[in-house]
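User: Please predict the structure of the protein below. I'd like the answer in structure-token form so I can feed it into my own downstream comparison script.

Assistant: Understood. Taking the following sequence of 182 residues as input:
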Amino acid sequence: MAGGGITTTDTNKTLMTILGVLLLTMGLGVLTNAIYAPVKPATPGYPLPSGEPAASAKAEAPKETPLPELLAKADAKKGEADTKVCQSCHNFDKGGAAKVGPPLYDVIGRPKGSVPGFAYSDGMKSKGGDWTYQDLFQFIAKPSAYVPGTKMTYPGEPDPQKRADIEAYLQQDSDTHPAFPK
């Protein structure tokens, strides 16, 4: 046909191409459904909690070692090394000035929130009492839990033995060297 019109052969080629693409698409769909078929449960739905603790929760959590036992095997040298992160905000020298945080020399037995001129948070000011080994142990674990509203941004030390090592160092970093609890 002269003049460049569409021939029957061109139309058939176009339709066969479209039909081939559709068949390929359908074939791929069937193949992927065969490979990645969803697993259908025997009974539909999801189990709901029964109110009883799960078997894993029934097992008792391991008991924490009491603080006196941790302190008995505490290592002051390790504790000193563990306070490196603390030294950016706290001074450990006798007569040392406050930094971002109050000085920690002779902290055990000292009244909480008592360093003159240091701007303690309201939570720390209202805490009351003296710093005991147990208080420091809990505070170092998570300051924000022990003193809500504390200005101390340190997230805490989760390892109980490291906390005991730090306390052993603080015991030596004192004029009075207060005895560990029995």
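That's the full token string. Residues 8-35 form the longest helix (28 residues).
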